[in-house]
Backbone:
């Protein structure tokens, strides 16, 4: 079974029934990851898509031990035989998780237990997650950040975190979009 096939099956088995909206979101994030394939080697693209469909697995009620889904999900995945270390790292650190971990008093645990993946893949994971609605549709960064703030409300931990992370989210998306534009320009310039 390929890494991607395994990731989809595990994500569906874990999220689809208890959290159908979350399952829709991760499928949308994975579709965004497939759109970024031209930016990466075959192996990196596979790692990104697998991480995309698994990034919110820590929300599953059966896995939520700390209440911080990147850490809970990465710990669960680390114990899976077929899990790829790089996928686990992307899940652990997706979408500026270190900032939220800090808000929760879990930064040391997250940093100690899980390495950061290469910046290009971290940026791509942020881009995919933060341009996908909770229902799995494509959206803008601005709309997604606003939706998160509205969902959690003023003064809540996640709202504080997302406000701190917003400049980094925009910067990561800008880097991904610049790489996409450069890739398209090269493709157009190549003779047929």
Residues:
């Amino acid at each position: 079974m390929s890494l991607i096939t395994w990731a989809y099956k595990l994500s569906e088995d874990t999220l689809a029934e208890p959290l159908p909206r979350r399952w829709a979101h991760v499928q949308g994030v994975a579709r965004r990851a497939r759109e970024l394939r031209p930016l990466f080697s075959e192996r990196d693209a596979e790692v990104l898509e697998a991480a995309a469909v698994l990034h919110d697995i820590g929300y599953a009620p059966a896995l939520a031990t700390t209440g911080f889904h990147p850490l809970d999900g990465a710990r669960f995945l680390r114990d899976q035989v077929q899990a790829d270390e790089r996928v686990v790292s992307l899940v652990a650190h997706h979408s500026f998780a270190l900032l939220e971990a800090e808000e929760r008093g879990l930064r040391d645990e997250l940093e100690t237990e899980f390495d950061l993946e290469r910046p290009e893949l971290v940026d791509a994971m942020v881009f995919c997650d933060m341009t996908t609605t909770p229902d799995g549709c494509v959206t803008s960064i601005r709309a997604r950040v606003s939706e998160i703030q509205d969902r959690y409300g003023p003064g809540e931990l996640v709202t504080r975190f997302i406000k701190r992370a917003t400049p980094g989210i925009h910067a990561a998306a800008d880097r991904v979009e610049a790489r996409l534009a450069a890739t398209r320009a090269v493709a157009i310039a190549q003779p047929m």
User: Anything to note?
Assistant: The mean pLDDT is 95. The chain has one domain: 3-189.
